[in-house]
């Protein structure tokens, strides 16, 4: 029986229930994280990737929305480790989620009960075409920005914009969307950051491009620099995507996913580029414990 962690206890997943009027179900008022764990072949252990950074972001998201979680960072980290052990999970996706567990109509969150659950599931590739690279469409929907909702908070309501963009891309026969910021610069994917390669330089939208500052993005910047590459964070024009030598998405779910076509235009001749492949190899060596250069990113379970 699969276990989930709910408000301090590991319980059977099928006993973890909420009512249909739950505030966060009606209004998208939950905050969450997405974390991966990987199998470490050499000692048959499991490693959680950048657990502390994900937990910090979880608590920052909560703080932005004035949500008091009733647990501290260590308690959530311990709960995640206990959950993976209880479910005997190795390569998994872990979803901590905090929400207003209340049964009333009405937007107010005053005095509403706040619950936290953590679920974890076996997880492989997020994109079916990941190995060969994916085809993306620039969305006709624009990304929201911090004058509308705080974009550094992973709030469930934020993802309705992402979902619209993905629906449009998939209806048009593409694998995923690329979203522009309201001023027309490249922002990110629905749940991914984006990088391009131009003349051996790695370029990614900067902090003012209306992006979530992803933890995988940060990891890739550090890996690329340690591989001797120049990395530049700056605004990217839409047409720079079409003329890039390589492009790829990063994200906890997407990991490193090559982008081989944008709006029908082939990137790197329609196959994953060499720099993308070399960063990707190093990333997987790090998360699977083969490359120990960034071993402090792994929490061994
Ligand atoms: C909108 C958005 N951008 C980027 C990312 C990538 O962030 P991370 O690498 O921390 O998973 C995510 C995933 O969390 C996301 O939801």
Proportion of residues in helical segments: 25-40%
Radius of gyration: 19 Å
**Text of the CATH class of the largest domain:** Alpha Beta
Low-confidence stretches: none
Per DSSP E runs of 2 or more residues, the count of β-strands stands at 17
* CATH homologous superfamily descriptor of the largest domain: D-amino Acid Aminotransferase, subunit A, domain 2
- Helix and strand sequence: EEHEEEHHEEEHEEEEHEHEEEHE
Total count of domains: 2
Bound molecules: pyridoxal-5'-phosphate
- Average of pLDDT: 96
Proportion in β-strands = 25-35%
For the record, give the distance between the C-alpha atoms at the N and C termini, rounded to a whole number: 20 Å
Based on secondary structure, the structural category is alpha+beta
CATH architecture of the largest domain: Alpha-Beta Barrel
Q: Tally the helices: what do you get?
A: 7
**Can you tell me the CATH topology of the largest domain?**
D-amino Acid Aminotransferase, Chain A, domain 2
The major β-sheet equals: 9 strands, mixed
Gross geometry: globular
Structure notes:
- This protein has 301 residues and is of the alpha+beta class.
- It folds into two domains: 3-122, Aminotransferase class 4, branched-chain amino acid transferase, N-terminal domain (D-amino Acid Aminotransferase, Chain A, domain 1, 2-Layer Sandwich), CATH 3.30.470.10; 134-287, D-amino Acid Aminotransferase, Chain A, domain 2 (Alpha-Beta Barrel), CATH 3.20.10.10.
- The chain contains seven helices and 17 strands.
- It has helices at 23-27, 51-64, 73-86, 159-171, 215-226, 238-242, 274-287; strands spanning 3-6, 9-12, 31-32, 35-40, 45-49, 92-100, 114-122, 134-142, 176-180, 186-188, 193-198, 201-204, 230-233, 246-251, 255-262, 265-266, 298-300.
- The strands form two sheets. Strands 8, 9, 10, 11, 12, 13, 14, 15 and 16 form a nine-stranded mixed β-sheet that branches.
- The site of pyridoxal-5'-phosphate has 13 residues, from helix 5 and strand 14.
